[in-house]
Write a structure and sequence with these properties.
heterodimer; A: mainly alpha; Histone, subunit A; two-stranded antiparallel ribbon; 3 helices; B: alpha/beta; 16 helices; 13% strand; globular; transferase activity (chain B); Glutamyl-tRNA(Gln) amidotransferase subunit A (chain B); nucleotide-binding (chain B)
């Protein structure tokens, strides 16, 4: 399988990465090289094989359903590029 | 006084305990070495001298009180991927500009609890994506090794290139690193250092910037096998904050060193004899086989038939997980923000400017293989192939093999800005052909220096072990180290 320019632009938008014509063209070549490389997986017989979900057979650990952390609003916004009174500030999204 | 930076961790530990010198003197020796060398090597992206001296003074107080920890006063470098409270933690990406976490990763917290001293943060490929340390926002690291009689700059490997270079150049006593497809073992092999990627689940991933969560594992890079064993003992733990952290006690890995290899079975996988592999690598492998035989081990030929599919499967699974993990960098909560005409444009502009080429490439691949209509053909198939890769190893171990010996890399270190590699991303990915199988199967793997190539550059061998049998790897790697000796770069910087 290979990707065309329109697909590259669509995927870039899905990934929220702005691309110009030149970027998209370059990426198309790179992506097709990688997709060409992974193409060899189609020769493996995977019938009846379970997909791997965990490398170590272990039950997922669950903690007790209680609040054991929190009250860290200041820490959480401390690295924000733009914040006010412990809120993250973003461009206006609702008219 | 002798140069304190020449000492191994084990030697420094003994001499600190004997009060031959203070932890502050040891830390100052390393800070001096960094100041003299970092301009040339670019191994550190941030040095924390004040914090280091404060930690060293506290270590001296604990040594005086007889309360020294296992790593008391030992100065370490930390890969920029580990969250360190109040200190530069940016995965060497532009998109994390200015990020200083308000918390500490479990692995580094374990090291500080054992008395270690932080010298600073180490350079790496952006978000640990790379095999040459050239994708770092902070520029490439130079390998302390150069070919005999040459002055061309070589890469230290990646992604833990800063860690490997700093250890090889004696700019820290040991370093933390992480390995998703070979990022500990390949740079260790390129710099004549020892690097171990433990079994998935052995070190907590909490507070380590995520790349591919089902493959990422932390481990140490050190100057010899004993030091790697000492460091892993402190780094590893059971951690409630990481649900994939394993509930097993951490063994005293150092105790495993020096035992006989009698009765051990070492597997030699025929599929690792890849096309175009240099004769030198084959010769090194044969030397390794001979050393292990001399040490009492039995050598058996084995087959891991799905080996060649590990790298293509990796280049689906790892980018898929990365595209999901890196969705969090949106210009809102931390790091870089580039304004746009609306919020969606702000996201797109921020990510376009904040991520480098290699990271974008992988996010794009990951987004594509997870997108509607392609999930089954790519991602699901890759995860099935992964099951087959793991099954190959299980079959070998079931047949009585204790560890598997392979080359660590298909070549020695290559040049910075290599044109051929820059032009073809797949060619660069092939660097991990011997290491990536181990991540896909979640197994432990160690790279140990085994010799020099014709141009005088270090080459490494890799040992692969059963889950949570790192002790077997340390013991076997120690036997190789005893036979091969140790390798130091000639100082040019």
């Amino acid at each position: 399988m290979s990707v065309d320019l329109a697909t590259v632009k669509r995927v870039a938008h899905l990934a929220r990465i702005a691309v110009n014509e030149e970027d998209a063209n370059r990426m198309m070549g790179e992506l097709n090289a990688i997709l060409g490389f992974v193409e060899q997986l189609s020769e493996v017989d995977v019938s009846g094989v379970e997909p791997m979900t965990s490398v170590t057979p272990m039950a997922m650990k669950k903690r007790e359903d209680v609040v054991n952390d929190g009250d860290k609003a200041e820490d959480i916004v401390a690295n924000a590029p733009n914040s006010d009174r412990n809120f993250f500030l973003v461009p206006k999204v609702v008219e | 006084m002798t140069d304190l930076t020449r000492l191994t961790i084990a030697e420094a530990r003994a001499r600190l305990a004997a009060k031959d010198f203070t932890a502050l003197e040891l830390t100052d020796a390393y800070l001096g070495a960094i100041e003299a060398a970092n301009g040339a090597l670019n191994a550190y992206v941030t040095v924390t001298p004040e914090q280091a001296r404060k930690m060293a003074v506290a270590s001296d107080a604990r040594i005086a009180d007889g309360k020294a920890g296992a790593l008391e006063g030992i100065p370490l470098g930390i890969k920029d991927l580990f969250a360190t409270e109040g200190v530069h933690t940016q995965a060497c990406s532009h998109i994390l500009d200015g990020f200083k976490p308000r918390y500490e990763s479990t692995v580094t917290a374990n090291l500080w609890a054992d008395g270690a001293v932080m010298l600073g943060k180490l350079n790496m490929d952006e978000f640990a994506m790379g095999s040459s340390n050239e994708s770092s926002y902070y520029g490439p690291v130079k390998n302390p090794w150069r070919a005999e009689g040459a002055n061309r700059d070589l890469v230290p490997g990646g992604s833990s290139g800063g860690s490997a270079a700093a250890v090889a150049a004696h700019l820290c006593a040991g370093a933390t690193a992480t390995d998703t497809g070979g990022s500990i073992r390949q740079p260790a092999a390129f710099t004549g250092t020892v690097g171990i990627k433990p079994t998935y689940g052995r070190c907590s991933r909490w507070g380590i910037v995520a790349f591919a969560s089902s493959l990422d594992q932390a481990g140490p890079i050190a100057r010899d096998v004993r030091d790697a064993a000492i460091l892993l003992k402190s780094m590893a733990s059971t951690d409630a904050k990481d649900t994939t952290s394993v509930d097993l006690p951490v063994p005293d890995y150092e105790q495993a060193l020096g035992g006989s290899l009698k009765g051990m079975k070492i597997g030699i996988p025929r599929e690792y004899r890849v096309d175009g592999m240099p004769d030198e690598i084959e010769a090194l492998w044969q030397k390794g086989i001979a050393w292990l035989k001399d040490a009492g081990a039995e050598i058996v030929d084995i087959s891991l038939p799905h080996t060649k599919y590990a790298l293509p499967a990796y280049y689906i699974v790892a980018p898929a997980e990365a595209s999901s993990n890196l969705a969090r960098y949106d210009g809102v909560r931390y790091g870089l923000r580039v304004d746009g005409k609306d919020i969606a444009d702000m996201y797109e502009q921020t990510r376009a400017e904040g991520f480098g080429q290699e990271v974008k490439r992988r996010i794009m691949i990951g987004t594509y293989v997870l997108s509607a209509g392609y999930y089954d053909a790519y991602y699901l198939r890759a995860q099935k192939v992964r099951t087959l890769i793991k099954r190959d190893f299980e079959t070998a171990f079931h047949a009585g093999v204790d560890a598997i010996l392979t080359p660590a890399t298909p070549s020695s270190a290559f040049g910075i800005a290599d044109q051929e590699l820059a032009a073809d991303p797949v060619k660069m990915y092939l660097n991990d052909v011997f290491t990536v199988t181990v991540n896909m199967a979640g197994l432990p793997g160690i790279a140990v220096p085994a010799g020099l190539d014709a141009s005088g550059l270090p080459l490494g061998l890799q040992l692969i072990g059963k889950p949570f049998e790192e002790e077997t790897l340390f013991k076997t790697a120690y036997a190789i180290e005893q036979a091969a000796g140790r390798f130091e770069p000639k100082r040019w910087w």
